[in-house]
């Protein structure tokens, strides 16, 4: 077993079951963000949690700008964790950018994965001819400039946009603090890779059955984006959630758990 990989990504394994569920966090977050979800699955499943390099308690010394200059580098992390632990039939639950990272991993080694559960996915955040990603490129470039010049201000602006649920300021605060707790340069690179990637052509390559969890009033991945993902992803279905914002696993864990369990039961994926 390659212990370097497990240390690099701060891999933690919990749960009493044999069927593996791997939880992959979104941009600017870490595995702690899944804490409202995991208790509902610990009794019946084997849960694998990790941090991308530069996030959480990962080994920041292992960060390589070339490797992580595209989402493929992060997908390689997922595959190396799976291979190091000899995992198979993995259910990967990926939030936000990890939806695309999980897809890329499944394209490379489809035999490792049983299904993908994509929480608020977007293959491209920028508006293109015939495609509504939600952002104009110039707006994202301006956001990157703010991030470079006023990192705390950038985090304070972005956190409520992502989280919504402003009536629960503790969630907005936690997300903002998560952004600020990470290395500025690495987070800036991850932001560029996240928001300027275009994975639309990868959608039809995915062979693994997939569930899309689409939130209400999600300013980061709108209903149009969710519909586009479903239209271009074979063997996929979409559940429209009442949860608002871009982080339902934090703002409405009960509904998120309900839909994940409903999908697993429908797909006859038992513990």
UniProtKB/TrEMBL annotation:
Q: What keywords does the record list, in alphabetical order?
A: Hydrolase
**Molecular function per GO:** hydrolase activity
Q: Which residues form the AB hydrolase-1 domain?
A: 22-256
Q: Which Gene3D superfamilies match?
A: alpha/beta hydrolase
Give the matching SUPFAM superfamilies: alpha/beta-Hydrolases
InterPro entries this protein is in?
AB_hydrolase_1, AB_hydrolase_fold
Q: Which family does it belong to?
A: Belongs to the AB hydrolase superfamily.
Instruction: Name the chain's protein.
Output: Alpha/beta hydrolase
């Amino acid at each position: 077993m390659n212990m370097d990989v497990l240390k690099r990504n701060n891999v933690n394994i919990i749960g009493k079951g044999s069927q593996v569920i791997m939880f992959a966090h979104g941009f600017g977050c870490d595995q702690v963000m899944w804490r409202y979800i995991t208790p509902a699955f610990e009794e019946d499943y084997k849960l694998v949690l990790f941090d991308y390099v530069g996030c959480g308690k990962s080994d920041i010394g292992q960060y390589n700008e070339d490797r992580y200059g595209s989402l493929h580098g992060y997908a390689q992390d997922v595959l190396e964790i799976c291979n190091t632990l000899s995992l198979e039939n993995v259910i990967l639950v990926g939030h936000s950018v990890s939806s695309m990272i999980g897809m890329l991993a499944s394209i490379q080694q489809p035999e490792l994965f049983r299904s993908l559960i994509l929480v608020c996915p977007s293959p491209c955040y920028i508006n293109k001819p015939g495609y509504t990603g939600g952002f104009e490129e110039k707006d994202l470039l301006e956001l990157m400039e703010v991030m470079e010049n006023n990192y705390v201000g950038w985090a304070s602006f972005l956190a409520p946009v992502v989280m919504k649920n402003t009536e629960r300021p503790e969630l907005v605060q936690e997300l903002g603090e998560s952004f600020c707790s990470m290395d500025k340069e690495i987070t800036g690179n991850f932001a560029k890779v996240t928001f300027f990637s275009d994975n639309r052509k990868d959608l039809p390559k995915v062979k693994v059955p997939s569930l899309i969890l689409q939130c209400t009033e999600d300013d980061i991945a709108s209903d149009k984006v969710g519909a586009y993902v479903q239209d271009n992803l074979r063997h996929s279905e979409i559940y429209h959630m009442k949860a608002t914002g871009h982080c339902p696993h934090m703002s409405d864990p009960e509904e998120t758990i309900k839909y994940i369990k409903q999908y697993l039961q429908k797909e006859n994926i038992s513990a």
